[in-house]
Every structure is written in structure tokens, then in C-alpha cells.
Amino acid sequence: MQKFIIIQLLITFIFGLKVLEHKCGHDKFKEISKYESIPLDPVEEYSDILPKKETDIRYKYSNAKCGIVPIPQIDRTQGRNSDLHLYVSYTVESSNNALANANWCQFINRLGPTHGTQGELKVLFLRTPNVLQFARNYYGCQNLHGMLLEDQGGKKSAGSHWEQTAIADEYMNASISLTQAYFSGFTTNLLRDTGFYAEIDESMEEQMFYGKGKGCDFIYGICELKKQRILQSCERRWTM
């Protein structure tokens, strides 16, 4: 039965990514959730990984649930040593046309995605193992510190989607593709890193060529280019 539920979850999630209209359930979840843990300002080091203390990675959200999922008591008394931890539920809501909803309930201070600076701009990286290795191979940059996350669009987009200038036309970009969107290896490897799925079928990955093999100069030059073109916007980044 458990295997059947996991398969149904995967099918529902992938189908939700395939719809032409990208819709996240941020607004709906804001009605039932209250953010109590907001990331601190990014650290000033280039992209250092800060050590995790067991007491810092316990679940401290006062609500008994994350979204609609009850929080196990052990998660409040014993920290989970993970960069990304998911609480997943499957429900049928006939009145909701969104096939998948996602919401973060706790962002552990200075943990989770790596904060750092790049080209004098403060940025947010995701460096879970499979995503990091895939990104290094994709761009041909073995010194890459992590995959860039979106830093514009406010709370609805920033920090929860792939950076548009790093990988365009991906289903997990914040903006809708005007041409053709793809379900790339960046997203499948993020699914692998959650630890929730027993197996991710590589045949689901669609080939992308935006920035592929362009090397470190491409990925590290993104913020420099953005600094030149949209300096005013860059100066407002990381204001909550």
C-alpha cells in the first residue's frame, strides 16, 4: 500500500510539472500557514558551508502541522541532518485546479541553501549532492559552489525556483516559458536529493542546452551581467 501511494504521488507531481501553466500554491498556503523562520542576511563569505549543530536543526515551528501534515514529535527533540526535509501529503481537492502545492514552514538560520556572494551580489545556492554534481557536469565547471536559485520576484519566487538566467525555460523557473518549457535533470536530481523517492527514472529528463558546457565563466558571470544591466534591482535584493 505504501509503495502504491508513493507511485501515485510521483505521477501526480510529474503531471503537475507538465501542465503548460506553472502554478504554485503559495497564496493558498499563506492562508493556513504563518512564516516564523525567515532567513538571516546572507553571510559575507564567498560560499562557505556553515557547520550544523544538532539543536539548530530541530523542528521549532510552533504550529502542530506543516501545511496539513502533522509534525512527528521526534523531529522536535532530535534534529535531522539534512539540507532539505519534506513533509508530504496526498489529498484530493475537487475545487482546486492546482495539481501540486509546495510551501516551506521552517528555514533554518544559515543552513539549508548556501548563502554567499558572487560578483559582489548576494546570492542563494542549492548544493544538495545530486544537484551540485549535475550542475557541475552540465556547465562544465567543477568548481561550481551550487545551483543558483532565483533572487527576484519577492517571496513568491525568490529562493524557491531555479535562477532564470542560469537555466531558462525550465518548469521550475518562476516565470512561464514563452516558447517550450523542459523538465530537466536539475529538477529530477532535486527529487533524488529529497530522499523521498525510491527511484527517479532518468528517461523523464528532457535535454536542455541553455548554458550547457559554457564553463565557469558563464555561470559566475551571470551576476556581473545582472549588476551591469539591472543595478537598481540588484541593490534591493534580500530585502524582506
Description:
The protein is of the alpha+beta class. The chain has a single domain, classed as Leishmanolysin, domain 2 (Alpha-Beta Complex). The protein is built from eight helices and five strands. Strands 3-4-5 form a three-stranded antiparallel β-sheet. It has a two-stranded antiparallel sheet with strand order 1-2. A hairpin with a 2-residue loop joins β1 and β2. The longest helix has 17 residues. The chain is globular and about 45 Å long. The N and C termini lie far apart (43 Å). The C terminus is likely disordered. It holds the Pfam family Peptidase_M8. This is Leishmanolysin family protein, putative. InterPro entries: Peptidase_M8. Keywords: Hydrolase, Metal-binding, Metalloprotease, Protease, Signal, Zinc. Its EC number is 3.4.24.36.
For the record, give the distance between the C-alpha atoms at the N and C termini, rounded to a whole number: 43 Å
Helix content: 25-40%
Number of helices: 8
CATH topology-level fold name: Leishmanolysin, domain 2
Number of beta-strand segments: 5
Category from helices, strands and their pairing: alpha+beta
Unreliable runs: 15-50, 109-119, 227-240
If you compute it from the alpha carbons, what radius of gyration comes out, rounded to the nearest whole angstrom?
18 Å
Cofactor: Zn(2+)
GO biological process, one term: proteolysis
Signal peptide: 1-16
Organism: Ichthyophthirius multifiliis
